[in-house]
Write a structure and sequence with these properties.
Length: 179
């Protein structure tokens, strides 16, 4: 399986969004609802949450696995290390931002800083850079969000989840389309 064109990326997104995720969300939420552990009025919210989290996992890690099982150009990987290192530093600095006397920056700053970095890595390093950069972004963002006090913590809990999903998923879509 090769991801060489924009059409290939759209096919991947369509299969994940339209086939895999609805099936997973149905088989995940319906049994919980049938046992009475999920109130009927929260069924739509639970379905959407299950669908979104499954999409994120599949969309981040499936291309990464494709990269791992394809022939990796280690010379290209060596040249990517500087860009990926800079992305890591930006992510850690952004999400581990101390409150200090200035408080947290607004969450939109995360998009304004990280998305151009992901686009740059994807343009320079292709699909391999996009896959590694997207997984790196997802793992670091979720880890620092869980253990840190980063910029999304200034929002209500429901907004935090939406911002995290949009931030990580949007960055992955951007990366793959640029690559």
């Amino acid at each position: 399986v090769k991801m060489r064109t924009t059409r290939d990326v759209f096919y991947l997104i369509a299969i994940i969004v339209l086939v895999l995720q609805p099936i997973g969300a149905i088989f995940g939420t319906i049994p919980v609802w049938l046992t009475g552990k999920l109130p009927t009025e929260r069924l739509n919210e639970a379905f959407f949450s299950w669908w979104m989290s499954g999409f994120m996992g599949r969309f981040l890690f499936f291309p990464f696995v494709l990269v791992l099982y394809s022939r990796i150009n280690f010379q290209k990987l060596k040249t990517m290390s500087l860009q990926l290192g800079m992305l890591t530093i930006l992510l850690v600095a952004l999400f581990a931002w101390p409150r200090g006397c200035f408080g947290h920056p607004p969450p939109i700053i995360a998009f304004a800083i990280i998305y151009p970095a992901l686009a740059f890595i994807s343009a320079r390093c292709g699909f391999t850079g996009a896959a590694i950069g997207s997984v790196l972004t997802g793992v670091i963002t979720m880890s620092l969000y869980k253990f840190g006090d980063g910029i999304f913590h200034t929002l209500e809990i429901s907004e935090q989840i939406i911002y995290l999903n949009v931030f990580i998923g949007g960055g992955a879509v951007l990366s793959y389309l640029v690559a």
